[in-house]
């Protein structure tokens, strides 16, 4: 860790920042994931007449919902899929802030996984589970603002003390992701911890972050989606046996970046108590952009889908009318025209002056942040996954590659293309194996470390230090276990997202090939999350 810390100091120093060396580190370990879920078969939700005293019917503030029960590791877990928390963001509501759901009559059958929000799936490696496990497994639709709840059955049946509540926010670079993935099935986590787990869908890509300097496209509506879902959970979780005063947000990648925004937001920071940030913070280079850049990207999208960008300022009403009628699939594909290379996604949160009032690090330095307990960390090899995708001609997903010195330099020069020559040379110097600069394996490893350090490790370290300086309490983990049944090549190491298996208890699924040690590791991590949610 000492070498990695010195590298972060170099990167942060070049950005005019300083990282502290006294972070409270505790080592954990990691892997990948799986579990089976029923697919949503019905496009319309079923409303039925209530049966008296049905133990699976819950009376919420917006209506009755009926879930289903499963026995998991000898414990009954009640699951509720697809509870709406907002009106469908379609038609006139496309690109706008979410509107709270209208209460319904009768019983909503919450037994089918909800739609996934519109996005582009990954198709680089067809048929490869390591990639396809992250692709949406339910219908893509703009009608996607639903949440899920997993709860121990005994909490409502016995009148036990209300449980801690964890709210999962998925990652996907703000461009994709879905809470319906098999790896996010929370029944094993619930059965092992006796906590309530919830998760929500939120709009991604242009549907969630289009910014055109107007109320019809204000940007950050994906963040408002999350906030509205958290508010619904806070207002209703007691009916499922949860404690609204013990809500902990947990998320990975863009989900963790989102949580960092919630810690800073006057709109949502009061809705939860604690936060767990896995491999993501808002100050990561991929996690935030200026309003100016977001506006330019939005104008390009307007032009690319045929809505006449020259009218954006002269006749915004006509432009937005057009943008609301363009087919969602067309927008979903066209937005990627503004992808500018490694981790430069065209949709992210912005400093809008409302949900996010100011530059995140400036706010933290001024103490304008929710002061609570956070658990934050990163994985051993955060960069290899993204490096592979953006430099496919250089790497093989299954086998290690001897990376030439020229290829190594090209990767670094692309990442830091907007930096000065002196800054780039400093980074190249830091990551070069000077005993043998032409060592292909060493170059491959160093390139992965550059990507991981710059986009994940160093920003997380800095966020943690500044948060502690501001008066928050910080616990830091470093996940360094490679799963024995890992689908990706050995050279890729402990990938971005590998810890998720263990957080959700996948090694306890007897149908999967995990070792006894990995089962124990998962149980320990779940216990840590339980204790953290309970007392910080």
TrEMBL record:
Which residues are the signal sequence here?
Answer: 1-20
Superkingdom of origin organism: Eukaryota
Where does the Carboxylesterase type B domain lie?
Answer: 56-536
What Enzyme Commission number(s) appear in the record? Answer: 3.1.1.-
GO cellular component, alphabetical, reads: extracellular space; plasma membrane
Q: Which UniProt keywords apply?
A: Disulfide bond, Glycoprotein, Hydrolase, Neurotransmitter degradation, Serine esterase, Signal
> Which Pfam families does this chain map to?
COesterase (PF00135)
Q: Does the keyword Signal apply?
A: yes
Q: Family, per the entry?
A: Belongs to the type-B carboxylesterase/lipase family.
Q: What is this protein called?
A: Carboxylic ester hydrolase
Native species: Scylla olivacea (Orange mud crab)
């Amino acid at each position: 860790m000492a070498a990695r810390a010195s590298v972060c100091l170099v990167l942060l120093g070049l950005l005019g920042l300083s990282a502290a060396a006294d972070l409270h580190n505790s080592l954990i370990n990691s892997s990948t994931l799986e579990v089976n879920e029923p697919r949503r078969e019905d496009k319309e939700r079923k409303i039925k007449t209530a049966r008296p005293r049905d133990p699976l019917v819950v009376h919420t503030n917006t209506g009755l919902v009926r879930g289903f029960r499963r026995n998991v590791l000898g414990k009954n877990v009640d699951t509720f899929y697809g509870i709406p928390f907002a009106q469908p963001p379609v038609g006139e509501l496309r690109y706008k802030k979410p509107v709270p759901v209208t209460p319904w009559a009768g019983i909503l059958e919450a037994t089918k996984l909800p739609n996934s929000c519109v996005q582009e799936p990954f198709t680089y490696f067809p048929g490869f589970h390591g990639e396809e496990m992250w692709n949406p497994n339910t219908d893509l639709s703009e009608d996607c603002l639903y949440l899920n709840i997993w709860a121990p059955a005994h909490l409502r049946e016995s009148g036990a003390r209300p449980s801690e509540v964890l709210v999962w926010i998925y990652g996907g670079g703000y461009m994709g992701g879905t809470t319906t993935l098999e790896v996010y099935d929370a029944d094993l986590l619930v059965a092992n911890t006796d906590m309530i787990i919830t998760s929500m869908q939120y709009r991604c890509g242009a549907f969630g972050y289009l910014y055109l300097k107007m109320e019809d496209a204000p940007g950050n509506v994906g963040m408002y989606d999350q906030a509205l879902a958290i508010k619904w959970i806070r207002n209703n979780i007691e009916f499922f046996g949860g404690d609204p005063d013990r809500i902990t947000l947990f998320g990975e990648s863009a989900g963790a970046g989102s949580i960092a925004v919630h810690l800073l937001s006057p709109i949502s920071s009061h809705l939860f108590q604690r936060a767990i940030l896995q491999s993501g913070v808002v100050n990561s280079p991929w996690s935030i952009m200026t309003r100016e850049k977001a506006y330019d990207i939005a104008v390009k999208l307007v032009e690319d889908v045929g809505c006449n960008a020259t009218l954006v300022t002269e006749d915004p009403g006509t432009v937005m009318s057009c943008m609301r009628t363009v087919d969602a699939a067309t927008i979903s594909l066209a937005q990627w025209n503004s992808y500018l290379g490694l981790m430069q996604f065209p949709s992210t949160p912005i400093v809008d002056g409302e949900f996010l009032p100011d530059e995140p690090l400036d706010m933290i330095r001024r103490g304008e942040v929710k002061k609570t307990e956070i658990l934050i960390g990163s994985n051993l090899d955060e960069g290899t996954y993204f490096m592979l995708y953006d430099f496919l001609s250089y790497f093989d997903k299954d086998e290690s590659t001897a990376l030439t010195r020229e290829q190594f330099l090209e990767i670094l020069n692309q990442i830091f293309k907007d930096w000065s020559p002196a800054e780039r040379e400093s980074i190249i110097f830091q990551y070069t194996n000077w005993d043998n600069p032409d060592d292909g394996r060493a170059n491959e490893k160093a390139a992965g470390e550059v990507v991981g350090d710059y986009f994940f490790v160093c920003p997380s370290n800095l966020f943690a230090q500044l948060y502690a300086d501001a008066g928050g309490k910080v616990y830091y983990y470093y996940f360094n276990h490679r799963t024995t049944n890992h689908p990706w090549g050995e050279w890729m190491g402990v990938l971005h997202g590998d810890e998720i298996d263990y957080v959700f208890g996948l090694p306890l699924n007897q149908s999967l090939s995990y070792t006894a040690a990995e089962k124990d590791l998962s149980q320990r991590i779940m216990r840590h999350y339980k204790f953290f949610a309970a007392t910080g």
